[in-house]
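Entry 14. Structure prediction run on the chain below.
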Amino acid sequence: MQVLGPWTDTDTLEALGGGKSRGLALLHRRGLPVPEWSVIGTDAFDLLASNGELAGAMSDFAAAADEPSARRGAARIRDAIARAELPGELRGLIGKAYDAIGGGAIAVRSSVAAEDGIAASYAGQFDTFLNINGLDEVVAAVRRCWASAFTDRSVTYAFAAGGRPRTGGVAVVLQRLVDAETSGVVFTANPITGARDEVVLSAVYGLGEGLVSGAVDADTITVGAGGATDVILGEKATSFHPHGSAGPPSAPWPTVPGPRPR
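Output returned:
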């Protein structure tokens, strides 16, 4: 096992790093200013899952015949991940990945190969934790990212998409946290109508969590070949910002009243 990152060759990153790391690498190689990042590959989870209760739970999950049995199997996996003793080798790897980006406050992001595929996107199915600070918090967040690959919503999505629940592990991206004044998302095709000749931009004050969670009413601009075709200005009465030196993984994003000035 090794810490992955922008220094890793494309084939290795594709095999072990998941969808988010693939996107980050593409941006980095185009010369764009990407906040520092490193990756704990799927081989780290495979090591954890190769022995004990977790190995048995993974085997039963892979053999599940229907959604109810797959849900039960996924619950066993999440429970086993929470209780599994973390080998020193894995904790050391997580520490190296954290040190590689300079420590401090970071985002801990699930990264799965199935994301952003042709047949299924898995958008929002796997967890990310913000404002994580210190090795113990990082280790706990990595463990919860692993568990998020086996949630009920992920199982249900897989069956709804006409496939089987994924049985592979999840990679985890560690990335420098930026206390953003504004954040946005750009869709290169209209996600509502499917029109490929329109670009849709949505933006909020503060961290992007307020936007992607739907908690903040965003500004949204639709741009066609001739310019902006629709502009919706959201109220944006709240914004999300880091709070304290480290937030617990369950609630790291307090809501702050009032927008910051433009």
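Residues 247-262 have pLDDT under 50 and may be disordered.
Filed with the rest of this week's runs.
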